[in-house]
Specification:
The protein has 3 helices and 4 strands, in the order ββαααββ. It is of the alpha+beta class. It has one domain: 6-pyruvoyl tetrahydropterin synthase/QueD (Tetrahydropterin Synthase, Chain A), CATH 3.30.479.10. It has a 4-stranded antiparallel β-sheet, covered by helices on one side. The two termini are 15 Å apart. 19% of the residues are buried.
């Protein structure tokens, strides 16, 4: 099995509902760090690549524009916790790549909200 891994950052603001969130119930921002481990087909191209890293990064950075420098409560349908976000991003990336007829799929998606706190989604 071959996997590729790419990393991204984006900045967004959000707030969480009280009483669960404490100080996070106030609007605040994060520089999110997103890591995607991509499952790739066994067939590599004639150069020996599954897909060019630059191409993947360009596609995903375009996708992330919907979150970058936005208030997540305004652009997500559910409360933007790290757990909700990582699940939604993983599902959207799966559909996004499929709609582009690309064979790579996210296998593991990790979203760090801070340097020490992350939510992880993994394909079954």
């Amino acid at each position: 099995m071959i996997y590729l891994q790419t990393d991204y950052t984006f900045d967004s603001a959000h707030f969480l509902p009280d009483p669960y969130a404490g100080k996070c119930s106030r609007m605040h921002g994060h520089t999110y760090h997103l890591r995607v481990k991509w499952k790739v087909p066994q067939d590599l191209d004639e150069v020996g690549m599954a897909l060019d890293f630059g191409y993947i990064k360009r596609l995903i950075n375009e996708y992330l524009e919907q979150y970058d420098h936005h208030i997540l409560n305004d652009v997500m349908t559910a409360t933007p916790t790290a757990e909700v976000m990582v699940k939604q991003i993983a599902e959207e990336l799966t559909n996004y790549m499929s709609n582009l007829d690309l064979l790579i799929r996210p296998q593991v998606v990790t979203l760090w909200e801070t340097e020490s706190c992350a939510a992880v989604w993994e394909r079954d």
